[in-house]
Amino acid sequence: MLLRFFRINDPYRLLGLLIIIILIGLPFIINPTGILLSELKNMVLGEAIADGKLMYVQIIDDTPPLAGLLFGFVNVIFGRSMVAEHIVALLIIFFQAGYFAVLLINNKAYAENTYLPALIFAILCFFSFDLLKFSPELLASTVMLFALNQLFHEIEFKIQRDEIILKLGVYLGLATFLVFSYWVFLLLCIFILITLTRAGFRKIALMIFGFFLPHALLITIYYYWGETDLLWQNFYASNITLSGDMLISTQSLLMLAALPLTYFLFSIFMMNREARFTKYQSQLMQVMFLWLLFSLIQVFVARQVSPASLFLFIPPLAYFISHYLLLIRRKWRAELMLWVFLTGIMSVSLLSKSGKLDRVNYNNLYAAENDLYKEINGQSVMMLGAELAVYQANNLGGFFLNWELSEPIVGDMSMYRHVEIVAACFEQYPPTVIIDPGNKMEEVMERIPALASKYKKEGNTYRKISN
Questions:
Q1: Per-residue pLDDT reduced to its tens digit, 184-194
Q2: Total domain count for the chain?
Q3: What is the domain range of residue 116?
């Protein structure tokens, strides 16, 4: 029944999809987990930007600029409401699923026009609970769908339509302003344009120009402010990596992705045996397979790896799995396989979320709490360390959010540039509480003696002396 409902080419089927997303999303909203480390960091970042702080200059962090701006915008509207952010995330997933189905219909990807890919896309977004958060990966995957649409258009028309190529490059560039490691898809698009459309140097150069256009604008703005060194250090240099931090084990990722990967293998077998493609549809299939391959490469170069890092696997998996279900000749069997897919994804997701699936360990996704700092509430806090849990009840004082980037500055006051940054920090956004487990403030106060009269030390914390 579910398969038959979404198999019909009727845009109103998307209303049914919205109802399904709301129903299967309710358990995640009604019974939320504790705040994730990434959520906490993004929330604190959004507060700081809403407070008027300049990214990379007055906020030492490596979050891409467009993601930071959107977190600030959401903070202005919703404050610290996690429920509101989760609802927004579900609406974005609904939009992505609907847009992906319409994209495939408009580009004649299947022998029949169907909204089944929208359902499969939405179900795949529930394979891990952290995909339902308002995250850079969720936002960037939306932009990448726009890029995929332009790529399909270019493959279909194969004529000199410069606006398609230019928009493709701009979308890829904007995606790196949300998740920097998505730059690998520039290489994918270059490869596809050369092999499938036989694009010449002019088109490739135009796409590359579109990709670097947002970056050129960003660099120009920071050059005008005289802060290109901090932009390079905190955004570009810190995000260029070939191996990021694994926040979840490979075993856990494989366990979460086991059912989608099984259905993907079924689809490959079925498509080789049953499918009859036009040349154009065959090219689209090659694009989706290459997209899947480069999504894997993207994981290896990502700054941090979590289940949300697998967002870009969803479009190609939805494409192939939909093909598999549509090719099953016996309708009852296709319906059964769809229900097995839905219940299997939801079961694994809910069991792993509740900690009942031992092979999936989410511990590293959460902020490690320290009881020593529980008495600090409602303060402007500067944490000179990697622990972020203190910000659950406080906001960011000063500039230093990402300790990996901040430690070289605070820990080396022999450089005038570092002294300048720290002095500006205390002058523009002085914290009321400084937590200093590594005893960094002694050297800071030696170089900036005026601070000693403004703060009183209590153990490894400093409290601002009231005037």
A1: 999 999 999 99
A2: 2
A3: 2-353
